[in-house]
Amino acid sequence: MTTAVLPSLIPFRSRRPLPGFGLSLGLGMAWLGVVVLLPLLALAVHAAGLGSAGWLRAIHDPRVQAALKLSFGASFVAASVALIAGGLVAWVLVRYRFPGRRLLDALVDLPFALPTAVAGIALTAIYSGNGWVGRFAEAAGLKVAYTPLGIVVALVFIGLPFAVRTVQPVLEALGHEQEEAAASLGASRFTTLRRVILPELLPALLTGFSLAFARALGEYGSVIFIAGNKPYATEIAPLLITIRLEEYDYNGAIAIAALLLAASFVCLLAINAIPSLFAHERREQGRG
């Protein structure tokens, strides 16, 4: 007589589609090193080889300073606008149900899938002097295309999805209970927004701002068409890197690229530090 083996006596072995932790981690880090870390390391090594004299000579160029001021300034403004608009869009998508909501939710991700050059051409066609919007804007005395304002518009276009997608899941997890409790205690809508909703959304808002800023700082394709690319006026830093390479000024291109890389790295550190800082603050408040 055969003895049936109980399933509970069989040692449980986890079966995963990928091999063990060590092999998976090794393969992942190898690909990450070849595709991401190695090029960045090469840029850092070349930038360090410039020396202080090479850095000062490259950065003190008035054309470089004008491009850097425009890129950082336009990226900051665009990230701020994307943060406000993205928060409102996320609020509408989470809190309301209306016809076309799923379509609007899908359209938020369109800048992720759309080639940046296509976005730049489309924005230029819309906001130029004879475009659908540009003709009315210029009639009112507001020129968008080929101005810094056009650069901000393009950067808002590519940065908006980051703000929406970082705020939306937090709003979905927040629910209505806290708002209803505040309303039952007599709090006004503004007080509820300031005391209940914004403190919960602040980490996500700051993360969305950092992502939008970092993305805008290195944007190229959607900007060069609508910017006009006038030196000292509408020339962005990523475009100036390309120009320096075409002029065989490799040291100048490396200096600008390394500066943008450092700024993006700072944004990356901020993105990873923001949740930890707020979690630590909440733990301290809970102990108090």
SSE layout and pairing:
Elements: H1 21-48, H2 51-59, H3 62-95, H4 101-108, H5 110-113, H6 116-127, H7 134-139, H8 148-174, H9 177-184, H10 189-217, H11 221-227, H12 237-246, H13 250-287
Helix pairs in contact: 1-13, 2-13, 3-8, 3-10, 6-8, 6-11, 8-10, 8-11, 9-10, 10-13, 12-13
InterPro entries: CysT_permease, MetI-like, MetI-like_sf, Sulph_transpt2
Subcellular location: Cell membrane
Subunit structure: The complex is composed of two ATP-binding proteins (CysA), two transmembrane proteins (CysT and CysW) and a solute-binding protein (CysP).
Question: Explain this structure to me?
Answer:
The chain is an all-alpha fold. The protein contains 13 helices and no strands. It has helices at 21-48, 51-59, 62-95, 101-108, 110-113, 116-127, 134-139, 148-174, 177-184, 189-217, 221-227, 237-246, 250-287. The longest helix is centred in the last third of the chain and has 38 residues, at 250-287. The mean pLDDT is 84.
Features:
single chain, 288 residues, mainly alpha, 0% strand, membrane, Sulfate transport system permease protein CysT, Sulph_transpt2, transmembrane, MetI-like_sf
